[in-house]
Amino acid sequence: MTLSPIGGLLLTPLAAALLFAVLPRYRLAARLNIAASALGFLFALALIPWRPQTTTLFIADDLNIIFLILNAFVGMTSSIFSAGYIGHEVETGRLSGTALRLYHAMFQLMLFAMSLALSANNIGLIWVAVELATLSTVMMVGIYRTHAALEAAWKYFILGSVGIGLALFGTILVYLAAVHAVGEGMRAMEWSNLRAHAAALDPSLLNVAFVFLLLGYGTKTGLVPMHAWLPDAHAEGPTPVSAVLSGLLLNVALYALLRFKMIMAANATAMPPGPLMILFGLASVIFAALMLYRRGDIKRLFAYSSIEQMGLITFAFGLGGPFGNLAGILQMILHSLVKSAIFFSVGQIVQARGTQKIAEIRGLTASNPLLGWMLIVGVVAIAGLPPFGIFMSEFLLLTSSFARAPALVGVAAFGLLLALGALLLRLNWLAFGTPSGPGLAVRASNAPALTHLALALIMGLFLPGAVAAWCRAAAGMLQ
Questions:
Q1: Domain boundaries along the sequence of the chain
Q2: CA 155 to CA 268: how far, in whole Å?
Q3: Which of 257, 271, 371 is nearest to 316 (CA)?
Q4: Mean pLDDT value of segment 430-438
Q5: Per-residue pLDDT, 2
Q6: Of 57, 96, 152, 427, whose CB count within 10 A is highest?
């Protein structure tokens, strides 16, 4: 393979998935899962000094390298957390045998599929990769084989299949729009080629295609009203899967949509994609913020927080402009770090308390001080309060809205305040007061969550010039 870092990034998890499918020993598989994920992260970092040339199938640019590194990093930290978390599930008898081999194999297959989607230069390959990522996570969501877990997995599979079917139809329409401009075959499916000839593509086909793509990939992103699979998948699957779903898979689906948005924006006669993205984004923010007040399950609570955050990010990219796009990219990065850290904490809280019901979890700062305070810091960060980085990205988004669409500022701010109130209300119950019972010992590592929260704090206090310039360059590609 000519793209050496991308080749390593793809072949490592794929080989690991094949190995784990037949490896019977859990402890060895857990260690190798960490090793394979760490090696994948090193290959992703190698893309910074060694940026491969664009080919028919693969591309590496300022936009996707950011998310390839983020994907590999969160995958690595999730594998570290997963080792202890799944170890507890083994000891309690919730997982064993075939389920363990399936878990580790699907974990690496999921990382492979997401890296493939992020590095693909072919719009058909992007679609295949997103579908593969969906199928691997469906298997992981239903891994406990309980009635609720299987129902959540089937709901995810059915709704995800509808979404990916809509995305496929949109992809076919983009190909048809490009045929007359660039010719038939693979050239009409290369994203870089489509981008270069975007002005010559059929605008009427592009308009219809983008509607289907928004609905299709928007389903995977968790946008309202295509979000129904997401709370169940988060609540019933293993917590490391919830962390990866919120922190990575939602980003991958939105990234695919952004690639098509760039083609639309480069065609002066096609409809502007921004208004539709703003509509779905703000609807998701308001709906999810209201639903936060009615959640009685701690994992469902933060699942709706992910819907709210992805809605806000979609709104940012729909608003566009140099600052709107920059705010969207920063928000994607920070949400991945913070939300996965929250789910790492929540996973241990659920294991320590033996329940996901918020009514039965109270006084964590007294019974499990470190877990309680990690949850507090995570909620403060995801709610957009200073000094964490999400405050910076949300402030940038709202100030940019004043210049480009002042009428929308009030709607976005209202949604953010609603979500803030709900999260602080639930946090007060979970973290303070008389403990609802003694906490059990947990064995998962706290290092991943602490590392993510520290990075979110650092990005809020000081964003290095090189990182800021890189993010601005990626934002410039989305104009």
A1: 272-479
A2: 39
A3: 257
A4: 79
A5: 47
A6: 152
